[in-house]
Prior knowledge:
2 strands; single chain; 14 helices; mainly alpha
Amino acid sequence: MDDYRFVRDNLLTVWVKQNDAEYRAAVGMALGVLVREENWASEVQELLCKWSKSTELDERWGAVRAYIYVGAYLSTREVIARWHDIASSELMGVYVEVSEGNILLLRNPMYMSLMDAMMRFFIDVAQRPIEEKRRLFTGILAGLRAWMTADKGNPGLGIFMFSTLGRLVVNPLESEGVGAPVLFELIDEPLVQSEYQAELLQLFNLLMSHGNTIIEARDLLCRWVSWINSLKSDSQSPEKRLQSLLRDIVAADTSGRMRGKLRLCLRDCGRNQAVERILSEL
C-alpha cells in the first residue's frame, strides 16, 4: 500500500497537473493496472471519486479520462454517476457575440472529452464476454437512467449517451453482414428477465413517457427492427426477443397508452416483414 501512495503522490498527482492528453492517458493506464489488484481497488476508487468532485479542473479532467481504463473494474453505475458529477460542474458551452446579431457557440472541451471517454468505455465493455458484458451494461444503464431523471446537471446528455449507446454495433467487421446492436444482443430469451432487461425496460418506459424523448425510443426500435429484417434467415429468435421486450414494456405501463405508442413508433419504421410480424404480436 505504501508503494501505491508513493506512486499516487509523486507520479499521478504530478502528471494530472500537466493539463496534457498524453499525461492523462498515462494516469488512466497506470490506474488501470493498479485497480486490478484487490488491495488497491478501493484506493483507486477513492482517488477518482475525489478528483471527480474536485474544484481543480485538472483533477476533474484526469478523472474523466481515467475511468476509460478503470471503469470496468469498479461499479459501472458509480462510474456513470461520477461522470454525471463532472458534467454537472461544467457548462456545456458559452455563447459569445462576435458582432451585432452574430452569436458564436464555444463548446466546452471538457464536455467533448467526457463524451469521447464514455464512448471509448462503452466500446471497451462491448468487446467483453457476454455474461461479463451484461453485468457491466446493467450498471451502465442504471447509471444513465439516474442521470436522465436527475434534477442537477444536464439530463439531456444522459439521454444522448443512451441513444448513442443504443446504436453501438458489436464487432461489425467480424460478423457476416451487419453486427448486432450491443444493447439488443444482451436482451434475454423470452420468459427470462434478468436485471439487465429490467433496466432496459425502465429506460424505454422513461423515454416513451415524454413527448420530447419518445423519438429517441422510436429511432432505436426502428434501428433494431431494421437489423432483424436484414438477417434474412434465422431472424426468428431476435424477433421473439424483441416481442418479449415490447410485451414487458406494455405490461409495466400504468397509463394504458403504451401499446398504442409502440404501434405508432413501429409503423414509422417503414413497411417490411419484420415490422408486420412484430406488430401482429403486439
